[in-house]
Amino acid sequence: MPIRQLPEDLINRIAAGEVVERPASVVKELVENAIDAGASRIVVSTAGGGKALIRIEDDGIGMDRADLELSVERHATSKLGEDDLDDIRTLGFRGEALASIGSVSDLSIASRPEGAPSGLRLEVNRSMKRPIVPQAMNRGTIVEVRNLFAAVPARLKFLKSDRAEAGAITDVVKRLAMANPEVHFVLDGADRSPANWPAQQGEGALAARLAQVMGEDFTGNAVQLGSARHGVVVAGLAGLPTYSRANTLSQFYFVNGRSVRDKVLLGAVRAAYADFIFRDRFPAIALFLAVDPAEVDVNVHPAKAELRFRDAGGVRSAVIRAIGEALEAAGYRASTTVADDVMAAFRAPETTATPPVYDRQPSARYEPAPAPSGFAGFAEPSARYEPAPEAVPTEYPLGTARAHMFDNFIVAQNGDALLLVDQHAAHERLVYERFKAQLADGPVPSQAQLIPVVIELPEEDCSRLEEAAPALERLGLYLERFGPRAIAVRETPGLLGQTDIHGLIQDIADGLAEWDSSAALGDRLDAIIARIACHGSVRSGRRLRLDEMNALLRDMEATPHSGQCIHGRPTYVELKKSDIERLFGRTR
Q1: How many CB atoms lie within 10 A of CB 542?
Q2: 336-346+380-588 has which fold?
Q3: For the whole model, what pTM was predicted?
Q4: CATH number for the domain formed by residue range(s) 8-197
Q5: CATH number 3.40.50.10320 is the correct assignment for the domain at 205-330
Q6: Cα-based angle 315, 317, 318 (whole degrees, multiple of 5)
Q7: What is the pLDDT of residues 505-543, one digit of tens each?
Q8: 192 CB-near residues (< 8 Å, 6+ apart)
């Protein structure tokens, strides 16, 4: 078959296959154009999931007749001033969006620049341009896309339901609104619930916009990011570790104002939260990066959803550092949703249909009844009350210890709340952070055993431990092979004090077997430290004295990340006085 030049309409339809994947792709291209045109208000209206109608109205700079004529031509753009693909400072530059959209739909563009007597309207019906006609309108641009893919039935049948396509459009507009808090966004149509996000200005504009889009629940349980490293400026909000999700739908990434999907950023966030969250849970985060345009290539994906960093390692380091510093500054803080979960777990006791009959004879005297069996714990020795010292509860954020329950939970009170603290989980985090701090200064101090502790293990476990022994010495754990099926432990980390050495070594052996590569032990030190910290923490079942409980609370207040244990669970729950009153149906 001889080579031939393809007709213009077919070229446009091929380009449309790259740029216009679905109605949401059209919305993205058109709203980005409106933002680049300096719009302060953008209204997005849809019908039929965007297949029947997409209408974008903005109050940007508008276009004159010459620009309007060129806007629907291929490879025509106003977004590359010097033809420099390494210096892209706008959201779009390909110059194919309108031409591609016009090839697979009925497209109309009406625009009026400042000072023009009236607007002008251009129609493109499946690549066929119509003459430009006048149209009365305010300054700005109105783009309407009707009957999307009507001439390409093969593409149309692969689209999802109207509801699903409308949801994809909402997600696109949501991301664009998050990246542009100074723009007022309105999203409406017969196929959706309307959204109205007024413009935000000033220092707190980004947080206010994130509250509009992601909800005040997120912003109330997140820490602010703000740092510059390796030429990368990192901003946004990162959710507390205890405010986690079952998927990544609450993770949003932006580079130079552009919403992206990038493995470097995903991996950096995962690494930053590795110490604080379960592997099957995901943090909520809105991450905004500002990078020199010459250091990032945005031309690696037709829809501009992916990019490539010139210094990926520097970007990763900057993100991990920014999140780490913000979480460390949060200290012992845990998310308010923990208390919400506790409130939801409470249930009022069921009442009987027939009220009990009381003896109302005048001679009857009140006698206190024994604690009912349903309130297990309060009638048992494990729920022990100890009078607290006369300290003002408001002196400390985590309050003053009031009681010890079930041999594991500290009951404390501050100025306006009751707190329940899991002593094992809290102390586990404290030991872990101290361990890491000591390791940062060099090998962890150790204490020698009077007599080496010999532990019998399967031969393969002994071999793994023997191979890992040099790395373990950095953690203050000195051991050596003691025959084919035994390990002798000569020194243990000083932080641990008296600990279950057998359980500790078995736990580390299990970890080495799970990872199945001692060569990777250097990358697993945090996991090893976590296992050691678990064995060095105050165990459940140990009763604490009042001074020990208060000392633990003070240590938590002074230790970063103490609001969650090393497995991602909360270490304490705070119930405000108003929450407790609500449990009993009391209102102010």
Answers
A1: 13
A2: formyl-coa transferase, domain 3 (3.30.1540)
A3: 0.71
A4: 3.30.565.10
A5: no
A6: 65
A7: 888 888 887 775 544 565 567 778 888 888 777 767 788
A8: 46, 166, 169, 170
